[in-house]
Specification:
Layout lengths: L7 E10 L3 E11 L2 E7 L5 E5 L2 E6 L2 E4 L4 H15 L12 E2 L2 E2 L5 E5 L5 E2 L2 H10 L6 H12 L16 E2 L6
Parallel strand pairs: 3-7, 3-8, 4-9, 8-10
Antiparallel strand pairs: 1-2, 1-11, 2-3, 4-5, 5-6
Length: 172
């Protein structure tokens, strides 16, 4: 990805929830433009959404999706705010974003969804680069450490904590 060196990315980040459990964020990217909790959907077909109600086309017919990708993103954002944000102070408002990315979908039609829905990682990278700076390098580091050290409760076996992946020009 073409992002600055001080940005941090976690794959499959586990965030504590208030229900003494956890939720998994597919891709968590933290940088000067904010914290981006990315829901990645790898369906290859055609998808349609109107006000967070999703359908998938199979042949000539459309079928409702049981789990709305945009509703999942909204849930992840709420859990992130509840878990991470009480541990910090002095952060700006509205720096947490929860887009959905369909990297291999054939077609996506969206109307009035509550979070950005993107077709592919190139669109995600462009979006990340367009957001204005709202976090300092120190704030990026603080959030990254909180995610890295997140306590996961009620898991039968000890689970490896997510490790940050520092984005460097060589990773492009």
């Amino acid at each position: 990805m073409s992002l600055p060196d001080n940005w941090v990315m976690f794959k499959n980040a586990l965030i504590s929830t208030k229900y003494r459990n956890f939720t998994e964020i597919d891709l968590l990217i933290i940088g000067n433009a904010g914290a981006f909790l990315v829901e990645v959907k790898t369906g290859k077909g055609s998808f349609s959404a109107n006000q967070d109600k999703w359908k998938r086309r199979e042949g000539a017919k459309w079928f409702p999706l049981e789990n709305s990708p945009t509703s999942q993103s909204i849930y992840h954002k709420k859990m992130f705010e509840n878990s991470i944000m009480p541990q910090v102070s002095g952060f700006p408002e509205n720096f947490i974003f929860a887009p959905v990315v369909f990297p291999v979908a054939k077609w996506i039609g969206i109307t009035n969804c509550s979070v950005p829905v993107l077709q592919g990682f190139q669109e995600l990278t462009q979006m990340l680069q367009q957001y204005p700076k709202c976090l300092t390098n120190e704030q990026v580091l603080i959030i990254s450490k909180l995610v890295e050290n997140c306590d996961i409760l009620d898991i039968p076996k000890p689970s490896a904590k997510p490790k940050p992946i520092l984005l460097k020009p060589s990773d492009q």
